[in-house]
From TrEMBL:
Claim: Repeat is one of the keywords in the record: yes
Record field: compositional bias (Polar residues): 1192-1207
GO BP annotations listed: system process
Protein name: Uncharacterized protein, isoform A
SMART domains listed in its UniProt record: GRAM, TBC
EF-hand domain residues: 848-883
InterPro entries according to UniProt: EF-hand-dom_pair, EF_hand_dom, GRAM, PH-like_dom_sf, Rab-GAP-TBC_dom, Rab-GAP_TBC_sf, TCB1D9/TCB1D9B_PH-GRAM2
Keyword terms of this UniProt record: GTPase activation, Repeat
Amino acid sequence: MWIQPKELLLPSAFWIAEMQSRYFVLQKRRGHGESRGFGSMLVGTYDSVWNTKPAPYRILHETPSSEVSYEIAIGITQDEIIKDWEWLKANLFKVLDEMENEDEVTNFTICKIQSLYTQNNQDDTGESADFKVMKSQFTKIFKMPEEERLVNSYSATYVKNKIPRQGQLYISLNHVCFYSYMLGQEIKRIIRFSELEDISRNANIIYLKTTNNMTYNFTLFSNASEAHLLIEQLNKMAIQQLIQDPESPVVDHNPSNILRLGGKASKKPVLLRDLTARQKSEEFRIYFRLPQTEIIDGRIKANIWTPYSKRFNAGYIYLSPNFFCFRSDVKDLVSVVIPMKTIKSVEKKDDGHQRFDNQIVIITSENVPFMFAQIVDRDVLISKITDLLARIHVPVSRERAKYDISWSKQTALMNTFKTQFSAEIVQKQEEKMKRWESHFRDFGRGIGMFRTTDVINLIVEGIPDKLRQEIWLIFSGAIHDKEMNPGLYEDLVEKAACIKHCFAHDEIDRDLPRSLPEHPAFQSTDGIGALRRVLQAYALRNPQVGYCQAMNIVSSVFLLFCDEENAFWMLASLCESLLPDYYKDKVVGAQIDQGVLNELVETHLPDLHGHLEKLGVIKMISISWFLTIFMSVISYESSLHILDCFFYEGAKIIFMISLKIIEWNRDKLLRCQDDGEAMLVLQHYLEGIYNPEYQVPPSTDKRKMERHQTQTVQTLIHEAYTKFGEQITQQRIEELRNKHRRLTMRQFDIDNEKTIVKAYIQNPYFDRNELHQLLTIIREEKHSLKSLQQQQQKAQCPLSEIPQLVQQSPNKGPNDLGASGSRQEAYSVNFEVFHTLFTELTPWKKCVSVDIGEKLFRLTDKRGTGSVDFGQLINALGLVCSAKSMEKLKLLFVLHLPPLLSKAEIERSRRPRPRTKDDAEEAFEAEDFFDNDASESMEALPSPSDHNFDADDFALISATQHLHNLAGISGNTFMDLSRTTPNLSLNSNTSSLAQRASTFYVDLPTAAPPGTATCTDAGRDDDGTLQRGLRQQGRYESIDTFSDISDLGAARLTPPGASGAGVDELKNSEMLLNVETISNFSQISDLVAATRLERADSNATDSRSLGSLGYLLDQPDEGASNSQHSIPHMRKENFLLLWRSIVEIMGLIQDEEMQRAYENLLELGNSNIKKEPSLESFTQLNLGGSGDEQPDNNGNPTTPAAEPRSTTRLFVDLEEELRLASGKPRTTPNSGDSSSSSTNTSESWHISITQFIATVLTVNSIVRGFQTPIQISEQIEQLQKKRRKCLSTNY
């Protein structure tokens, strides 16, 4: 890439000339792309220590007579730099050769390169060339996806084993990474922001601690504060993203959200500047209580004229698209908020004795003047205000759709249900009203009033009832949201009224009678109706929150003093700004502030903290205090006074009041012996808090009439401000919230893991600690996979719209841990995670000829959902890692049987090729397990019975039609059956794996218990005729996700209960063939494949469905006699791969004993050829059985048996027709056996599980290898270390 020409005085020994001309030289960094020699190590160490990591290629311009050269282009790859060199060669070489003066050559070259640089960077991101090189190195070193955006990098030192390592600390949107290269030794560390548990800084050292108790210390000699604040900010964003949407854990940042209307040029990376502006905007919104969409544009130093004090006060002017704000340098001295839409004029003031003070005067629509002086750059300020005013958009109420409901907004309920106060209380209200009116005359009224310490004092004294709506709306910021969304509340109310059967509405209706039930306003339909509309409208506005208990209590208080729409916007401001995340699932915001309160108690009341921690009191009191802002524990008239202060101070007042309550009860709490006694102490105190200036008429409730008095609420608030007002600041609260946000989310994971471990503690494989470690690595791997998938999706489908303030997704996050099923679902794994865990944790990862992990996943996923739960994962990994040698050998045997190991895989294994790092990916793309669409994942895995079949195969179509014709089915009927058979369409990707179900009619003994085989399709129960017909034949429906004919067997023509004459009748009839049984596509496919010699499955090598092969994982300790009876025999080609897998698992070492066992098994297979008849023809398929063999789970026979003659004749006809079509001679009864034996010897070769186990157990080396258990905890630690050191890619 072209860069601004950079002057170089001395040649560097670290560069090697690759190409050279008269005026240009192309150089390569020494050691780049070469083996690690001494020179390469020296250059790499130099770059790492001195933080000089230039691009590996560059082009210099130099002249023969000058010692000064100019760097004009750099390249990250050789192709990139060659492209620039070719341009120079084509455009400048000849031109420069014709020039006589070297100064002219240099000037021309520099001007040309500057022009190229400007032209190529017109539409660029604004990043410098050095930062682009740094981003490329970051991506290459840590193998990050291109979508992972680098924020900045810092020179840092990391201490490892007491040895300092100088290197580079890279900070991206989702990771903190460190890289160092010292004399040939590389150190890489990768830490996700979402896994950080503690972040702290001491001088220039940044301490990081992760959730798996790993600690890192990084020393930065410069910009340590900037790096620490950046890590804190990105960690906060990562945790908030997990709270908002656990399924999308990747933090993304749209720079267009933080565009500034004007700013000074900066050398810092663009994304770092944007994140800094984002942090400043958040502080700006919190202080001035502005909408979440406001983005700060900048600030300018200035003084404001305060008419009430007749003087100027120094501070800063803040500008945003919709607001002009001022804040004094002295805390809480004065602040002003002026909406841009109310500004009528902005004028310079250059007259009078202060004409040199750069003054301006702003006139609002109410003709209120605001004068500012000592402005640093007055012209720039006026230009910005003018630009913002030109862009201002004043929303207007739009035309709304009309709904068929009748309702009207409810005014403040206190006007309808008036409280009869005593004369003394009325007089106090009038005195407060006079003081407020006097304040309005001096300081202004409305949004643009001067906000000073005087207004704080008035609020602490109490707000009159008549002014509560106005003051609450202004200081909560709700008035801004209301003005920016005219007509929205009406829309929400009417839309919510049309929603039927909503869970949130049911919850709201249940809690309505519990909302201030003692107040007459909520004993009437007017109050209840208004409260219902407010809560339902907000549940529709913010479905992520919906409705949470305690929202009804605060909303009912809002409705007493505010009209219905204002109460709605007060609730929105409370849930989204003042108490963020309080009312979401698990009230996560309240639990975070619970941790904040606990730390504040430890800081300010250290003698009491230990005792309260022991009793667990903080956890019991904080939720009820915080969610209702003390309304549920303090009397209504007293909590109003706290609510007044809350809208001005925010959450700060909650912590101050809580600390004061605990401090006042210090002695009593120290004497408490248990939590119940402590709660009674606090309850007794809180019930006695009263408000002498707002006494409601006495209640008829005897308990309230006898209530004692402990303290006035005015004293409580005053003492709280006096003791804690200066010590607890909003900045301190935000710092503690960031810390406890991490700890709270970590505690959720710990509680979740404890519940799951308790459910599976009785498993035979892993102890408690190993289960915890397994859950941890599952969570980390799932997070890594989700992050990668989310980044890839965003790269393919970039977002074009700016995210909304409140996400309108109605789906709750899956992180809801309230139910046991949700907990376990959070730790279920898909194929990618399962395969990674299998490869990294088990000893069978050495097997490379067969993808054992993929086979084991398919065997474990019995329901075909594309994922396995934690219990299934324990059984699968536990068995492979255990010392149960016999069960492990059985499992390995089963994993090499069809349909798990297909014929196509066997054929591929016979053509070996060198294994590469892409083998795993290519294995997933195998046509046996995936559809034609390569984008489909494991969830699109077809039924194992569908392998190697082609819907257009002529032999298949003709065979199917012939079978149906012989059975008496017409062509149209055949086509109808084809349409209704789910597995018939092989190339369709429209149905998911969970929907791939085939229906079979299976013959079961009539004497079987009712629960042995039942119909799982509820829809067919209504078809009485079909069911009665099936039951009369002794057959039942069976639905299995994965099935083939060998699992279920062909239909028996003789019902289990038939005998005597009935049997003779059946033998004389050829038309009683069970058509439903052979109409399934996968069954017919097996029949046709056998005639084409694609599959020569005999009774001994019967391939079961995955359901029938998966018993081993369910009952690993089942006796050999029962389990081995249902395992099919194995063909020779499968056995060869099985033995190869054993050799690979043993480390590619095969001793004489193993070789002898291998030869013995081959001989056993050869001897089985003589014992068992060949099954080249259809006539020897297993169509029935004797009455004493053990059926499998579906009631299918597992041993060979004779078949009726009628079926034999049917298959003989088809077999002969296919033989003639293929050019083979017609067989005769006398030559059939010899022909079969000579042509299909290899297919008839087989061994049983019993023969395999008995032979292998005689090999001591195999027994020792399979009896050696694997410590899963050690493997997990190794995997985590790999991830941290970036030694292996995630996926």
